[in-house]
Write a structure and sequence with these properties.
It contains three helices and twelve strands, in the order H-E-E-E-E-E-E-H-E-E-E-E-E-H-E. Strand 9 and strand 10 form a beta hairpin. The termini are far apart.
């Protein structure tokens, strides 16, 4: 048996990395439990949301209400460890009526593409003149916004990415946190951001577009997930 003092440096590093991964995983489980409570609270209250979602200069969705929220997760295996791969909070915002966008026919394809990128469901109908030529297109927008907040750990670089999709605007934003930064004060700021009460959460970490977590060669994603309705 080898004495502990003679453990090779590489083995000590592996043990240290395993402990760090375990610590990040434990933090994520704490965040998962915290978000579950928030989701149940929001699901019960259906609170108003103060954000105004602007689609260029063509449309504004306001007087929003949070109607539905739930949390999901997925696990993955790192060597001998089974760890959280990601946590995702889903919720849906609704507004009182269906917004209408009317644009010239030459702009219709561009507007349709932008609506799809924003995740908005719609019905379109052409407007024709007396010669049956299409002069304009009208888009009737389904009065809801589907929103997700995804927390994704990087167990190699010891970071946690937070991706905000349609949280306070029609946009996907990616932020990168150290584990220590995602304390309960940060999570409370996240809830205030969801409700449109404060944007302090957006100042807590740098924005990193197109960030993806490092995937070590021994990592494999397990098809295990759970959805909380």
């Amino acid at each position: 048996m080898r004495a502990e003092g003679n453990t090779p440096p590489s083995e000590k590093n592996r043990l240290s990395e395993a402990q760090i991964r375990t610590s990040i995983d434990q933090l994520l489980w704490h965040i998962h439990a915290w978000l579950e409570e928030v989701a149940r609270y929001l699901e019960t209250l259906h609170p108003p949301v103060s954000h105004e979602f602007r689609f260029g200069n063509l449309m504004v969705m306001r007087s929003l209400t949070l109607e539905q929220s739930f949390v999901s997760y997925r696990r993955q295996r790192f060597g001998e460890q089974e760890l959280l791969d990601h946590i995702e909070l889903y919720y849906r915002l609704t507004c009182p009526s269906s917004p209408i966008i009317r644009v010239p026919s030459l702009s219709a394809n561009d507007v349709e593409t932008r609506l799809r990128v924003a995740g908005l469901a719609f019905e379109s109908s052409p407007e024709v003149d007396e010669w049956r030529a299409v002069r304009a297109v009208q888009f009737k927008i389904l009065p809801e916004i589907k929103t997700t907040i995804r927390l994704e750990p990087d167990y190699v670089q010891h970071k946690i990415g937070v991706r905000l999709s349609n949280v306070d605007r029609f946009e996907v934003m990616q932020m990168l946190f150290s584990p220590a930064q995602l304390d309960e004060e940060a999570l409370e700021d996240l809830v205030r951001l969801i409700l449109g009460e404060s944007t302090a959460f957006l100042k807590r970490a740098p924005w990193v577009p197109n960030w993806r977590p490092t995937r070590p060669t021994f990592a494999s994603v397990q098809p295990v997930s759970r959805y909380i309705l």
